Amino acid sequence: MCCWISGYIVHEGYPNHVFHGYISADGEESWDVHLRKDGISLVNGHLYTINFDAHTIYGRERDINVVLEKVGPPLTNYSNAPYFHLNSQMKTFEYTFEMTCPTDPLAGICIEMGECSVDDTDIPNEVIIDNISIEENIP
């Protein structure tokens, strides 16, 4: 995937197309710090699987939220994925959902890294995310 847009508090580098975000402040909402891509087609009644690899740096832990959503009002969360718990070990995360809303050819994926952290301090944290994919499950 290309053309990712990140929240204003993340300083990122893209060596080898890996997202390396330095989060200097969490913000007040989970979406205050985010990485997103719009223009994803989701078809009603189809199953989709979200996959990504992620971890944190320096032994810190962080919860992140991955949302496939309608872009613009009314905001609609299509995926309803649980929060994913990151620690210092790289882990592959996977979540499958059915698109139960009307087909949306312009949906977006938003990886929220703001105030969904396990600790409530604003101590800087670093998040590494790689191999993000959204695949349609074709029987």
Write structural notes for this entry:
With 139 residues, the protein is mainly β. It has a single domain, classed as Jelly Rolls, CATH 2.60.120. It has no helices and 10 strands. The strands form 2 sheets. It has a 5-stranded antiparallel sheet with strand order 1-4-9-6-7, with no helix packed on it. A 5-stranded antiparallel sheet has the order 2-3-10-5-8, with no helix packed on it. Strand 2 and strand 3 form a beta hairpin. It is globular, with a radius of gyration of 15 Å. It starts with a strand and ends with a strand.
Total number of strands: 10
Q: What is the CATH topology classification name?
A: Jelly Rolls
Order of helices and strands: EEEEEEEEEE
State the shape.
globular
The CATH class designation is Mainly Beta
Outline the biggest β-sheet. 5 strands, antiparallel
Number of domains: 1
Poorly predicted sequence stretches spanning 5 or more consecutive residues: 1-12
Give the full name of the CATH homologous superfamily.
Answer: Galactose-binding domain-like
Q: What Rg do the Cα atoms give?
A: 15 Å
What's the helical proportion of residues?
under 10%
| Class from helix and strand fractions | mainly beta
- The CATH level-2 architecture is identified as Sandwich
The separation of the N and C termini measures 24 Å
Oligomeric form? single chain
How much of the sequence lies in strands comes to over 45%
State mean pLDDT (0 to 100 scale).
82
What is the number of helices? Answer: 0
